[in-house]
C-alpha cells in the first residue's frame, strides 16, 4: 500500500485562488462601506448646521449670515462638524461642504443653501426654511 499524506499542488493552488478572491471581495466591500460611512457623516454635519441656522441663528437674528467663515457664527453645534471627513473646514477651499447665502443685503440674507458633496450619492442639499 502506497499512501501519502498531504495536499497536492492542484489543491494548494485552488485554496490560494479562493482565498485571494475572498480577500479582494472583502476589500472592495470595505471601500464601499467606508465611503457610505463618510457620506453619512456629511449628512449629519449638514443637518446639524441646518438646525443651528434655523433654530439658533434665525431665531436670534431674524435673518441668515452671508457667509460662515468660522465656527463662531454657529456656536450651538460641535465645532468638529464644520470639518469634512478629510479634515477640510466649511470655509476652506476644497471642502466637501459649502454654504451660500442668497437674497443678501448688508451681510444679512433672507435664505441660504447648504451642500455636501457625496461619494456614493448625489449632492446633499438643505435649503433655508424661511
Rg, nearest Å = 25 Å
User: What share of residues are in beta strands?
Assistant: 15-25%
Oligomer: single chain
Helix content: 40-55%
Task: Tell the overall outline.
Answer: rod-shaped
Please, what is the average pLDDT?
93
Compressed to H and E, one letter per element, the order equals HEEEE
Secondary structure topology:
Blueprint: H1 9-61, E1 64-65, E2 97-105, E3 108-116, E4 124-127
Antiparallel strand pairs: 1-3, 2-3, 3-4
Structure description:
- By secondary structure, the protein is an alpha+beta fold.
- The protein has one domain.
- It contains 1 helix and 4 strands.
- The chain has one helix at 9-61, and strands at residues 64-65, 97-105, 108-116, 124-127.
- Strands 1, 2, 3 and 4 form a 4-stranded antiparallel sheet that branches.
- It is rod-shaped and about 95 Å long.
- The relative contact order is 0.15.
In short:
This protein has 130 residues and is an alpha+beta fold.
List keywords for this structure.
130 residues; alpha+beta; four-stranded antiparallel beta sheet; 1 helix; rod-shaped
